[in-house]
Amino acid sequence: MPTWATISFQDRSSPIIEHLTFFHDHTIIVISLITIFVGYIIIALIITKLPNRSLNEAQTIETVWTILPAITLIVIALPSLQLLYLLDEESSPSLTLKTIGHQWYWSYEYSDFTNIEFDAYIVPTSDLEDKQFRLLDVDNRTVIPIKTQVRCLISAADVLHSWTVPSLGVKADAVPGRLNQVSFLINRPGLIFGQCSEICGANHSFMPIVIEGVNSKTFSKWILSQA
To answer: Same structural domain for residues 42 and 111?
Structure first.
């Protein structure tokens, strides 16, 4: 969950966000090295009393600063392409979850089961119980089994919304009349929090997302209780 004074990523709860974090760290290292190198050259040119006449025209350095950026781009592009491949659509999910954005709440439907659908409203501050989080908890949590590939179909009933769960590495626009799709796998049990990330009206800040990752046996019991 998000906490105060946290500038890094949230705790990783899926393989997707683990790859995204690795790519972020990898890119930051490359950018930092480039910044240090360019800064060193600028400072060296500033403090040098006389210009280096050999730099006015040199075929060698022209070759170097053409090839070096190309290699740098390749170093960044290869893991990026791998990540795009991993984020591609899942062809054989084990569970399908349909999510609809409303002003201002989310509704969920488990397409693989009959008559299992519900709305998830934010819990008012006056109704909060122990161990519930202000402005983050909902009255009906979305229960998902861990170690299971999930396909989430996302749309909206009125205006643009965005279904976003940072610790899963998932973010997709909810567009009226259109279905977007994301896939994810939860690798550990627990509560995972998200929020709408598209300004959708006066109560945009009050439509959180809560996913509860549970084991398969607990999920089966929950499905039976909902049915």
So the answer is: no
